[in-house]
Structures
1.
Amino acid sequence: AAMAAAAAFSLTEVLDAFRRCVTEQREVLLEPYLSGWRGLIRFLQSLGAVFSFISKDAVAKVSLLEGLCERQGFVSLQAMVREELLAGPAALRARPDSGCRTLLRLHRALRWLQLFLEGLRSGESGTSALCTDAYNASLAAYHPWVVRKAATLAFRALPPREAFLEVMNVGTPQEAVAVLGEAIPYISDVYGITQELFAQHKLLDLP
């Protein structure tokens, strides 16, 4: 079953989605953003239970945002932020199901994935160390101690780099590294625009 799940994922779908994400006006389109996330979730799921504490949360957040986009007709991240801020910062902070808060959770996880994928591409250290470093530099700050402890333990059991490159389903390890090299700048760009937008509106610490 693991193999069947793995076959459903290809890194090119993540690349294509994030490539479509940013408009000429530097707006982040939510449809390709969520589509890129669905690909990243499949990538995490194809690696087994190790990442389930992140992928389960991401699945919930993605479907919440999809519902929101359908109901509210939000096309871009900027439009969603503008709309939700109309109620005032205090009202926004009080809403646990706001699009801003939900997207912020995905945004933090995207940073971890971006760092981890960069590490996989360069291959400078083992996957466990890479993943732990990426986690400590991103998501760890927002997780309670017990989750952090479980995560770092789980990362010790990660397969070697070849297994990750294979799961990407884009050919040889060299080809996987090349596609990573193409995909990462798009992911970084989306991350950077989101970070700037949230910082500008003081939304980076939404409870």
2.
Amino acid sequence: FQLPSDSFKYLNWCDLEEHDVRGNQLLCPRVREGPSEEELFFRGEHHTLKKRKQVTETEKWQKKLQENWENCAELNLSYQDLGDLYQVENLNRILRRLIRVEKLWLVDNSLTDLSAIRLPRCKELNVNKNHFTSFKQLPKIPQIQHLSLSENNIRTLSGISALRHTPLESLTLKRNPCEFQENYRQLVFSSLPNLKTLDGVPQLPEDCSPPKIHFLSKLCTLL
């Protein structure tokens, strides 16, 4: 038999105005808001949406309450395919509302900077396969316990000290350029005193030794 959504299967965009689904009921939502009528017109897709009525302030407030992201405790926002700026802005809008989220996945979203985002209760964050180049571009995560940053472009460990006063227990940095830094494991463990596991490997005795610092003498030739 046909599903209720069957009549929409050939449309690129559709607007379901009346429903009782709340944001915190969705574990893996697509957070991309549909394009404006102007964008649809330039794409030649303006026929796919009905004429949108003027939205009142009351209706905007009701929609905000229905999204209910503030009560979300676990959320997967991976693979969003954020191709347009308004889609990125909509994702950031939702991230700013996740004040109670404890587990969050943001894998493969081409993210570059979330430093303006604060996740006060987040204990587990997965941002694998993004475009972060520094620890300073991560969101504020004071309660983080498990952080995964595989396959980004983090070149140095500069800024990792921002995680020093968090209860971080496990950190994954596989396939980042900083993984090839000399004394990599010793530097990470010395920067993060609560860390127990790095890249899936528990702390080893040699990881506890202070990193060796090589002092290179410089010769100057006077003519």
3.
Amino acid sequence: ANYGPNPICKGCLSCSKDNGCIRCQHKLFFFLRREGMRQYGECLHSCPAGYYGLRTPDMNRCSRCRIENCDSCFSRDFCTKCKTGFYSHRGRCFRGCPAGFAALEELMECVEGCEVGQWSEWGTCSRNNKTCGFKWGLETRTRQIVKKPAKDTIPCPTIAESRRCKMAMRHCPGGRRPAKTKDKKKKKKNLMERAQKQHSIFLATDKTSQ
């Protein structure tokens, strides 16, 4: 039966002029639509956004999704599509993906990310593959990739990092310091030779003047 311009009783087993469908055919879902102060029943093949189909022996119904930030859901506890700006993860909606998961932007889903182990201890302070001979050097620590991501497009976090460090030994044994001592002795010897030469010139000049 039709009441008014719209076939509000389509798919109904029983229908009211004022309230629309009261009971639906076996395969359809009963949905109670609200418009302002008025509400009326409809029989639908699938439930609208924000609702999911709940099948019961008495009558199939459209039940509202109760999951926060969910647009459409499969059941009371599983969201199939989140609202704009939220990522879907195991039937829930998140602003950001939980630890250990990475955001797949094109699908707005959280997928298994790259898992890395703990950082190692900081390595020896060195520079140019030497652990002495400089005031400052670099020390490095690393960590291993425990599990690669499911998607190749998801990058792993850094697995090595370095920082500036002060070397324990600025001068290498038998290296720069002895070389400086040798140079110092050579410089002293040159000064002595120059002084002796100047003294000899002075004596020769003195004799001539006499």
4.
Amino acid sequence: GSSWNNCDFEANLCKVLPEFNLQPGWIRRNGQSGMGPPYSDHSGNESAYFLSLSSEMQSSSAALRTRVFLPTDEHHLCQMRFHYWVSQMSGTLIVGLQKDSEDIFTNIWQVSGELRNQWNVNTITINSTEKFEVIFLGMMETQRQGESVAIDDITFSEGC
């Protein structure tokens, strides 16, 4: 509901995804951009915006980092809900947790190819005893026409 911090990408990025955290490789666009699928956002709106991997990516992966969140506890359940599109074969989307004291992020969820070309939704409950960032890592093994990795409507619960 309205209590969730929501990133729908309509105006720009939101408070939990600062502008400078959009690393090269991710692009904010809509389905009418002429960049291939998806041709609409998760609600079917062709002019509504989402993030997708750019076809001009220099490397095969691109990270998207949230701001730093405070530790979670039993009173502050942190849930993150997001819509995702991973087209067939070569696309992968990983969600990771970057904790304050660790150099590398911990993979907490991942999906690869073999999905039909459609938007899906997922909710992840995050537990961390220390400050953390959430990382979305999109990867494309090959740049085939008509393949894409995209994210839309990321929402964080009040406990985050």
